[in-house]
Amino acid sequence: MILVTGATGNVGGELVRRLADEGREVRALVRDDGRGLPSGVEPVSGDLNHPRTLAGAFTGVRAAFLLSGYADMPGLLREAERAGVGHVVLLSSGAVVGGDRGNAITAYNMASEEAVRAAGMPYTLLRPSGYMSNALGWRAQLAAGDVVRGPFADVAVAKLDPYDLAAVAARVLTDGDAHKGKAHRVTGPRPLRPADEVRVLGEVLGRDLRFEGQGDAEARAEMARTDPPEYVDAFFRYFSAGEYDDSRVLPTVEEITGGPARTFEDWARAHAAAFR
């Protein structure tokens, strides 16, 4: 049995579907009754911020896919160890490499990685670049017109399709011995600026779209509506102050899955209906 946390998210949802399609026994940690999960997937409830609620979720699990940043990561991992989980795959961040603990996002990922190492169970760390699916945040603007406004116009990121990250995670979870004790940096196939993504999205949708960069003050104010201030500061430190270069392209997807990483055009075609 493989436990997938974050099972309805961009990465977790793809991972659940992939493992189910491969005929694996999958348990999905969900907040509701699990409707919408693939056939044969077992839904289970629990609160990742309260590890004692997860004893049943870990029972009989040989490998678990976990997310970073929960309130008591050591406690969460103790529950996994008590249940006999044999391999933990942690979704972390590329920003931990040479990162500064004064950055809130880097800090919680570093702390989560340290908790996994200290737990004493076999583990694998996945450190992805930014996700192509972040473009879904533009849907409201594109419903209103042909202009997307956003921050960090000059910042290129090697955007990664969550489908590919899930494919990597699936291989690591099912062929764990080859990956135990390793940290894999996972990226998309090329660095893209926001204007590049908007141009490709326009071509796929058959629309003449354009991107306009926001000034820092406007971007901060908009981000503050949805994100805690320490996370807003973290993003500005990464991409405005230049503390984090997320543009490096690595061949990890192809090395682990045997197939090339999907392009942003591939992602846009697969998700075009979400913008219509």
What does this structure look like?
It contains eleven helices and nine strands. The chain is an alpha/beta fold and 276 residues long. Strands 3-2-1-4-5-6-8 form a seven-stranded parallel β-sheet, sandwiched between helices. Helix content is 38%, strand content 14%. Helix 1 packs across helix 6, helix 3 packs parallel to helix 4 and helix 7 crosses helix 11. Helix 1 links the parallel strand 1 and strand 2.
User: Would you list the SSEs in sequence order as H and E?
Assistant: EHEEHEHEHEHEHEHEHHHH
Q: Oligomeric state of the chains?
A: single chain
Give a short account of the largest sheet.
7 strands, parallel
Which residues form runs of ≥5 with pLDDT under 50?
A: none
The amount of helix comes to 25-40%
Strand order of the largest sheet: 3-2-1-4-5-6-8
How would you sum up the global shape? Answer: globular
At a glance:
With 276 residues, this protein is of the alpha/beta class.
Write the layout of secondary structure elements.
Blueprint: E1 2-4, H1 10-21, E2 26-29, E3 42-44, H2 55-58, E4 63-67, H3 73-82, E5 88-91, H4 104-119, E6 123-128, H5 139-144, E7 147-150, H6 162-174, E8 182-186, H7 194-205, E9 210-213, H8 216-223, H9 229-239, H10 252-257, H11 264-270
Parallel strand pairs: 1-2, 1-4, 2-3, 4-5, 5-6, 6-8, 7-9
Helix pairs in contact: 1-6, 3-4, 7-11
Key descriptive features of the protein:
276 residues; 14% strand; 9 strands; single chain; two-stranded parallel sheet; alpha/beta; 38% helix; 11 helices
